[in-house]
Amino acid sequence: MKGTGVSPGIKVGKAFLLSREGPFIPRWRISRGEVDRELARFERAVDHAKKRIIQVKDKISREMGERYADIFGAHLLVLEDISLIEETKQQVREREMNAEYIFVGVLERIAKKLSALDDEYLGGRSVDIRDVGKRVLSNMIGSKRKGLSHIKEEVIIVAHDLSPSDTATMRKETILAFATDVGGKASHTAIMARAIEIPAVVGLRNITEEVGEDDTVIVDGTEGVVIINPDEETLVKYQKKDLELKTYEKEFEDSVPLPAQTRRGHQVKLSANIEILDEIPLVLSHGAAGIGLYRTEFFYINRQKLPTEDEHYEAYKSIVEKMAPYSVTIRTFDIGGDKFISQLQLPEEMSSFRDFRSIRSYLAQPEILKVQLRAILRAAVHGELRVMYPMISRIEELRATKEILDTAKDELRRSGIRFNERIRVGAMIETPSAVMTADILAKEVHFFSIGTNDLVQYSLAADRVDEQRLQPYEPVHPGILRLIKMVIDTAHREKIPVSICGEMASEPAYIPILLGMGLDEFSMSAIAIPEAKRVIRAITMTEAKRIARKCLTMSTAEEVDRYAREKLKKIAPDVRQYYQR
């Protein structure tokens, strides 16, 4: 079964199937005279749940660090949500029914709304809400939360879903790995799994229906694969793969401090793409030389009010300080069009953003962008921080954003607030029009970042459905390669650097092509950096240029892909030996 690998590693063991059933929720009517007593009972249950969450938070902080304890800080925020508590109380008064029944209804409505959104991060928040609900209910109906620490034998947990609280109580000595029907890489459960280094695969849809108690299960968290009741040949294969993977990872550890340079010393910058601050430890442990793309959309989604300037500032300051002395590139928010579906809850002030993407959204409501830019300018005094604008398609849009930036600077200057006057500004090249006018754009920015995911989609005329049908080698379509080469050559003529932050940058077979075309920086998922570094250290620029020239003469994407993979086997034969697609 194929899912999403959220915590790497391979484990083989007996399945321990967690029941999906929750506690029975009683339902009864109360008299008007009993309402106050019922509300007091509910408030006591909420207070007791808060105290227990604080205890868990403190324990996690001591044992694993503050960044993981913050997950339970988010749980506290659920119980401190005045609208949630007040809605429950109001319904108890109006419907004259017991509090636990009303509370479950309110929570479940919110959780289902989040689960239905076409957004991995927000879908993961529904798990947090249900986890908090279980704590309150256990105080009201007396059900005891055992957690998973009571398990004494080595098992692999199979469940519909797991809460962060469940994951936090796992003991590596007995819980070998876990696999779930639902979930995503940005969920708090996934973050906890990586923190305690338990292999995990989520999003398997129906594994709880396919697995029986005590079935033998293989969990490959690296590839995102689960195998049920494997035959002897498959068992031996994965046991060997596990041993090879550990050897491979050990070699990676040795290469992390080594520079990303070719055999003859040509320096290349390898940076990481991130969405949440919790990814920074992973970024640093995998040898990234900076953040090449920090997506900021999650500051805006699922909020009643817009984030304040200080909220932005504190987050950006934190990431810059944690990444010092490396650079951090913040992409201003990219919301609208197909980036987020129209049902997504956004602050009312951003309702018009659903109609168009990124830069056009800014121009519709420049005050929202200005708040973010003020925070970025302020945070830039604490380290090397750059800003880039997504989906630029014409010079007028770029100039309009520069005017907003200048206004933000003027306001800070007049207020006597410290900020970086010389912050470096870049443009993302994601449309054919931006490629064709790159010479004009390059004169007004400090760097380019090519977003190959969108560039492929718009250049090959693929809509959202077609995009899912694109072949994995479409990034090396001859037309796309020529567009990339045009951007790199144009940028270098104007003496500005170019990076790529799309998925293409993390494919080892394509790295020699991009390197040979003159790319200055590769930005990718942190876990892909060790492999990329290995490829770069195994090749010379002469070889890379020869490969790039050859690929630029080819007629089809499939031809380029096949040639690139053949070359990779000769240049770095050990790369991707254990991570085949």
Automatic annotation (TrEMBL):
<feature type="domain" description="PEP-utilising enzyme C-terminal">
    <location>
        <begin position="251"/>
        <end position="539"/>
    </location>
</feature>
<feature type="binding site">
    <location>
        <position position="454"/>
    </location>
    <ligand>
        <name>Mg(2+)</name>
    </ligand>
</feature>
<keyword id="KW-0598">Phosphotransferase system</keyword>
<dbReference type="InterPro" id="IPR000121">
    <property type="entry name" value="PEP_util_C"/>
</dbReference>
<keyword id="KW-0762">Sugar transport</keyword>
<dbReference type="InterPro" id="IPR006318">
    <property type="entry name" value="PTS_EI-like"/>
</dbReference>
<feature type="domain" description="Phosphotransferase system enzyme I N-terminal">
    <location>
        <begin position="2"/>
        <end position="125"/>
    </location>
</feature>
<keyword id="KW-0460">Magnesium</keyword>
<dbReference type="InterPro" id="IPR050499">
    <property type="entry name" value="PEP-utilizing_PTS_enzyme"/>
</dbReference>
<keyword id="KW-0963">Cytoplasm</keyword>
<dbReference type="InterPro" id="IPR015813">
    <property type="entry name" value="Pyrv/PenolPyrv_kinase-like_dom"/>
</dbReference>
<protein>
    <recommendedName>
        <fullName>Phosphoenolpyruvate-protein phosphotransferase</fullName>
        <ecNumber>2.7.3.9</ecNumber>
    </recommendedName>
</protein>
<feature type="coiled-coil region">
    <location>
        <begin position="32"/>
        <end position="59"/>
    </location>
</feature>
<feature type="active site" description="Tele-phosphohistidine intermediate">
    <location>
        <position position="188"/>
    </location>
</feature>
<feature type="binding site">
    <location>
        <begin position="453"/>
        <end position="454"/>
    </location>
    <ligand>
        <name>phosphoenolpyruvate</name>
    </ligand>
</feature>
<comment type="function">
    <text>General (non sugar-specific) component of the phosphoenolpyruvate-dependent sugar phosphotransferase system (sugar PTS). This major carbohydrate active-transport system catalyzes the phosphorylation of incoming sugar substrates concomitantly with their translocation across the cell membrane. Enzyme I transfers the phosphoryl group from phosphoenolpyruvate (PEP) to the phosphoryl carrier protein (HPr).</text>
</comment>
<dbReference type="GO" id="GO:0016301">
    <property type="term" value="F:kinase activity"/>
</dbReference>
<dbReference type="InterPro" id="IPR008731">
    <property type="entry name" value="PTS_EIN"/>
</dbReference>
<dbReference type="InterPro" id="IPR036618">
    <property type="entry name" value="PtsI_HPr-bd_sf"/>
</dbReference>
<feature type="binding site">
    <location>
        <position position="295"/>
    </location>
    <ligand>
        <name>phosphoenolpyruvate</name>
    </ligand>
</feature>
<keyword id="KW-0418">Kinase</keyword>
<dbReference type="InterPro" id="IPR008279">
    <property type="entry name" value="PEP-util_enz_mobile_dom"/>
</dbReference>
<dbReference type="Pfam" id="PF02896">
    <property type="entry name" value="PEP-utilizers_C"/>
</dbReference>
<keyword id="KW-0670">Pyruvate</keyword>
<keyword id="KW-0175">Coiled coil</keyword>
<dbReference type="InterPro" id="IPR040442">
    <property type="entry name" value="Pyrv_kinase-like_dom_sf"/>
</dbReference>
<comment type="similarity">
    <text>Belongs to the PEP-utilizing enzyme family.</text>
</comment>
<feature type="binding site">
    <location>
        <position position="464"/>
    </location>
    <ligand>
        <name>phosphoenolpyruvate</name>
    </ligand>
</feature>
<dbReference type="InterPro" id="IPR024692">
    <property type="entry name" value="PTS_EI"/>
</dbReference>
<dbReference type="GO" id="GO:0008965">
    <property type="term" value="F:phosphoenolpyruvate-protein phosphotransferase activity"/>
</dbReference>
<keyword id="KW-0479">Metal-binding</keyword>
<dbReference type="GO" id="GO:0005737">
    <property type="term" value="C:cytoplasm"/>
</dbReference>
<dbReference type="GO" id="GO:0009401">
    <property type="term" value="P:phosphoenolpyruvate-dependent sugar phosphotransferase system"/>
</dbReference>
<dbReference type="Pfam" id="PF00391">
    <property type="entry name" value="PEP-utilizers"/>
</dbReference>
<keyword id="KW-0813">Transport</keyword>
<dbReference type="GO" id="GO:0046872">
    <property type="term" value="F:metal ion binding"/>
</dbReference>
<feature type="active site" description="Proton donor">
    <location>
        <position position="501"/>
    </location>
</feature>
<dbReference type="InterPro" id="IPR036637">
    <property type="entry name" value="Phosphohistidine_dom_sf"/>
</dbReference>
<dbReference type="Pfam" id="PF05524">
    <property type="entry name" value="PEP-utilisers_N"/>
</dbReference>
<feature type="binding site">
    <location>
        <position position="331"/>
    </location>
    <ligand>
        <name>phosphoenolpyruvate</name>
    </ligand>
</feature>
<feature type="binding site">
    <location>
        <position position="430"/>
    </location>
    <ligand>
        <name>Mg(2+)</name>
    </ligand>
</feature>
<feature type="domain" description="PEP-utilising enzyme mobile">
    <location>
        <begin position="151"/>
        <end position="224"/>
    </location>
</feature>
